[in-house]
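Protein modeling request. Please complete all fields; requests missing the sequence field cannot be processed.
Requester role: graduate student
Desired output: 3D structure, token encoding
Chains: 1
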Amino acid sequence: MIYMYLVSHSSARRKVFSSAMARVFVYGTLKQGQPNYRHMLNTAKGIAKFQGRGRTVEKYPLVIAGKYNIPYMLNIPGTGHHVAGEIYSVDDQMLQFLDEFEGCPDMYQRTPMSIEVVEWEGKSSAPGERPAARRVMECFVYSTTTYQPEWVHLPYYDNYDSSGKHGLSYVLRESRD
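Delivered output (177 residues):
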């Protein structure tokens, strides 16, 4: 839990607010080095702190679909691969931004999933709270149940890279027609 202290300039009184950070697992264009990572760094949209790398405990199909080559994790547990991605702690403001950015709930749905920690860099306030590799934690993931039926026949990936060997370069929103 994070405590924020706000000081009123006129009265110098302190009010204490608490806000829990949510864990979000990103597997596509929001990862480091990918086209939309800049949004994770933009503090005007909220706070996103990189914590580490992980992969889905269950297998899921990760496909690249549509005319803009968008990565989608189809919410079909048990099919596909263990999908690799990054774990972030985000505040409520960033979570709201991500919901809007991901077109939630129409295009993607934000659901809790079990993520296996592969590498952890996050800082912890209490000793012993740092998750070891192979530990499983719950994270929100933007996956979809509202996909086109033919997408299940597309190639499945375990790790998305917009400039990967697949040759399907992601089209930024500002470049779309």
